[in-house]
Amino acid sequence: MKLQIVHHPAYTAEIPKHHRFPMMKYAGIARWLKQNDSSGGTYNFHEPEAVSQQALLRVHSRDYTQQVLSCSVPDAVEREIGFPMTESVAYRAQCATGGSLLTAMLALEYGVACNTAGGSHHARTTQGAGFCVFNDVAVAVRAVQAQRMARRVLIIDLDVHQGDGTADIFAHDESVFTFSLHSEKNYPVRKKPSTLDVPLTDGMEDEEYLAILETMLKRVLMSFKADLVFFNAGVDPHRDDRLGRLALSDEGLRKREDLVFRLVRNEGLPLASVLGGGYSHNIGQLVNRHALLFQVAANYL
User: Fold this and answer.
1) With bands split at pLDDT 50, 70 and 90, how would you rate the model's confidence at 37?
2) Where is the Histone deacetylase domain (predicted)?
3) What backbone torsions phi and psi does residue 75 show, to the nearest 5 degrees?
4) Which of 51, 67, 126, 137 is deepest in the core (most CB within 10 A)?
């Protein structure tokens, strides 16, 4: 069986040339996957549709949704997001969100699926923030619940930054469990309580990180019976990441991905993965870190 991968060319939006967000990593990941599957036997690519307004409104306010779609986001919110709110950026957000929804549907059908974007976990109901326009995972969760494809959803967020937007959206919803393992002193300054938050000290390395993750994830899987699992596989806990404060190695990231897939798939649960954060001036190194997710996922079909 091939690994189901969701990708859209629009994931690479047009932003100023010297912007600090590494937008070119999305095209780089798709290129890496195709170059490393020359026989065409490992990966099966799907191109998502832009998410519908109806799906967005299950999570985001009508005012904010319309502001994004019409590229009329207030200046203060645009600054919090960190992107110029152009048609290209707005369309990227719609496609990435549609991509996470398609990834969830493919995971429910095939057991495992990966989006080459997604993980915009700082976006809240009324606005975006931290390079996040729409909260793609939250929109996808609400869509599969509305279609009765899944009722209880576990979100494993291993991006180095706490998933404050996702935590806030599902704060009073017992059908969604939000688990965030993140750098305690990193962005955002004002964190929102997840179902389970595990803040980590600066400079934590592979062995301690993996031991904590294994203990806590086993506990979560035992206590919360999910129909679907989302995994935010941000690589910004890497020791060389510009915006991280942890110290994982490449091998630590690979072991992290393998641990998540092994524990979740051993429970027989469908697993939908999204890319999450990763910030480096060296796009080649960054792509190689993100590619670990897909290499590991292909072993758990």
Assistant:
1) confident
2) 21-283
3) -55, -40
4) 137
Alpha-carbon distance of 25 to 286, in angstroms, equals 7
- Answer for the pair 300, 273: CB distance below 8 angstroms, yes or no: no
Each residue's pLDDT tens digit, 224-248: 999 999 999 999 999 999 999 999 9
Q: What share of the chain is helix, strand, coil (3-state, %, to 5)?
A: 40, 15, 45
pLDDT recorded at residue 132:
98
**For the domain 3-300, what is the CATH code?**
3.40.800.20
Per-residue model confidence as pLDDT tens digits over 166-181: 999 999 999 999 999 9
